[in-house]
């Protein structure tokens, strides 16, 4: 039966994963020793994933051995025995998630033919009362580890390889703050405090709220018409001043007769004494 072939395959893949975990830990130890904490923080996720896979293979090995030992009881009963439901459902659940062990798919097909597609679908989809072990579901999940878990693993690696590494350099405080931002307030008191203390926004002063002693121009009727004195021919003197000058310059009493007589003499050719041209 395929179930008997699955057990040695599980052991082989488990040993391979364990060797890979040890190699990854040595690489992480070198990163910590050289001060590359950020790189170690990323690669430690591979260690967590490999260790979870090894733990899942341990559970699958136990389940498969239990099913092989109880195979006569399984064959003699039409329905799934209650004391074997967790083992059988867990193997069916893992058959779709452990591609390295193709024998589990054959086992799943065998139980589908015996108990029906509904039984198999409930295990694959994790329906209520499907019987799949919670520990196996957790180990085969793809959830990334949180900050404290990474820090714990890196600290253990540093102690194992006798490396003088300070966990504070890893940024434990920053990771805690980052996790708090993602997870939100941990207690109802913190959430109430956030809602009770909204940010204060100070409004800019308007025309209704003016500081004492300060006057603001009123532009309600439009912008004032401002003319630059450089572009105008006159200064800011009143208009009556220019009108008075223009009238006084044309008055007969203000006319200069001496200038007029001089002009007439020049035009007629008569020159005043001592001014005749040579």
From TrEMBL:
Signal peptide: none annotated. Residues 202-278 are annotated as: Disordered. Transmembrane segments: none annotated. The keyword Coiled coil applies. Residues 14-41 form a coiled coil. The keyword Coiled coil applies. Residues 218-227, 247-278 have a biased composition (Polar residues). Gene3D superfamilies: Vacuolar protein sorting-associated protein Ist1 (1.20.1260.60). It comes from the Eukaryota. Keywords: Coiled coil. One of its GO terms (biological process) is protein transport. This is IST1-like protein.
């Amino acid at each position: 039966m395929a179930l008997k072939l699955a057990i040695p395959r599980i052991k082989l893949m488990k040993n391979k994963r364990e060797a890979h975990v040890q190699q990854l830990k040595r690489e992480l130890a070198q990163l910590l020793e050289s001060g590359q904490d950020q790189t170690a923080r990323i690669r430690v996720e591979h260690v967590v994933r490999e260790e979870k896979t090894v733990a899942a293979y341990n559970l699958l090995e136990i389940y498969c051995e239990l099913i092989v030992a109880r195979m006569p009881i399984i064959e003699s009963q039409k329905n799934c025995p209650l004391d074997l439901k967790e083992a059988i459902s867990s193997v069916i659940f893992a058959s779709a998630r452990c591609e390295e062990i193709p024998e589990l798919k054959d086992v799943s097909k065998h139980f589908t033919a015996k108990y029906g597609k509904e039984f198999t679908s409930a295990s694959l989809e994790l329906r209520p009362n499907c019987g799949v072990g919670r520990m196996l579901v957790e180990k085969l999940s793809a959830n990334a580890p949180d900050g404290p878990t990474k820090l714990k693993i890196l600290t253990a690696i540093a102690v194992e390889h006798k490396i003088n590494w300070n966990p504070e350099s890893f940024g434990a405080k920053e990771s805690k703050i980052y996790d708090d931002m993602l997870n939100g307030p941990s207690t109802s008191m913190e959430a109430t405090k956030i809602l009770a203390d909204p940010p204060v926004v100070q409004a800019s002063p308007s025309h209704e709220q003016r500081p004492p002693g300060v006057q603001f121009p009123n532009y309600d009727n439009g912008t004032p018409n401002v003319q630059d004195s450089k572009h105008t021919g006159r200064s800011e003197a009143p208009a009556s001043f220019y009108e008075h000058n223009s009238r006084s310059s044309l008055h007969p009493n203000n006319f200069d007769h001496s200038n007029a007589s001089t002009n007439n003499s020049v035009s007629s050719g008569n020159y005043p004494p001592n001014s005749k041209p040579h």
